[in-house]
Amino acid sequence: MFLSELKIWNFRKYGSGDGGAPGLHLKLNKGLNLIVGENDS
């Protein structure tokens, strides 16, 4: 499976942007992608 992007609306600290845009829009590349949270989780 390959995820090309991640869009988040109204989840925890991510609200929604102007005009209904997602609070977080993250584009991912093929290969290794690493996401590290504030508490290193």
Instruction: Quickly count the helices.
Output: 0
Unreliable residue stretches:
none
Q: Could you tell me how far the N terminus lies from the C terminus, measured between alpha carbons in angstroms?
A: 22 Å
Spatial order of the strands forming the largest sheet: 1-2
InterPro entries: P-loop_NTPase
If you had to describe this structure to a student in words, what would you say it looks like?
InterPro entries: P-loop_NTPase (IPR027417). The chain is an all-beta fold and 41 residues long. It has one domain. The protein is 0% helix and 20% strand. It has no helices and 2 strands. The protein has strands at 5-8, 24-27. It has a two-stranded antiparallel ribbon with strand order 1-2. The mean pLDDT is 84.
Question: Which descriptors would you attach to this protein?
Answer:
41 residues; mainly beta; two-stranded antiparallel ribbon; P-loop_NTPase
